[in-house]
Amino acid sequence: MKYLLLVIFLLFAASAFSAPVTREFRDLKLPTQVIMEKQEFTNPAAASAYDIGSGDAGATGTGAATDTTFIAQPDVPRNLVITPGSTTADVGTCVIVVTGTNFHNDAITENFTFAANDSAAQTGTKAFKTISSVAYPANCEDSPFGATWSMGYGEKLGLKRCLDVAGYSVFSTVAGAYESTRATIVADTNEIEKNTADFNGTMNASNDFALFFIQNFNSAGGNCFP
Fold this sequence. Notes:
Layout: H1 2-17, E1 36-41, E2 48-56, E3 65-67, E4 78-86, E5 94-101, E6 107-114, E7 122-123, E8 130-136, E9 147-158, E10 169-174, E11 177-178, E12 184-186, E13 196-198, E14 209-214
Antiparallel strand pairs: 1-14, 2-9, 3-8, 4-7, 4-9, 5-6, 5-8, 9-13, 10-11, 10-14, 12-13
């Protein structure tokens, strides 16, 4: 009997040890620890008012209009800038809605509000990885609809994780050199597109930028992780 039990035990052990191994893709961290992350931005271009769309007509009549064709997409996730042009006296009070994706490819939108006869650029706060559409409501222009709209990007680069507070940015580098004045950080605890870094170094499509920061490991109720 004891030999039978031994055989059964050996068969059970062999089965248990031959079970497939499940790979876990998760950050290894004890509850009492924090982890510094590094995020690199390769050769971000200088901010521009026209690199995504230049002089688009917008609404050319009393109906709404949607633009889905662009000169280019952002080179890295970053904030957007919309500027009225041409006959800005035709600009009406309206909210232009931009739709696209964030760092993790989740769909996001941002509203850009303009006043009547507005000629000033409106700067967004969310970091867009891609842009799929720009929607102009019916009241965005007045007759004879001579205003145009240009879209570019600013200097706020999108982070890959959420931060609890802006002070969790530890330091930044430009072209491998330490920035004596750290990047200006905007933090949000659960929306990845609202976490941005504005470096002090010059963005010129040749300098690499890097940020070292402490993320908050928030994965519940937000989009901080893919």
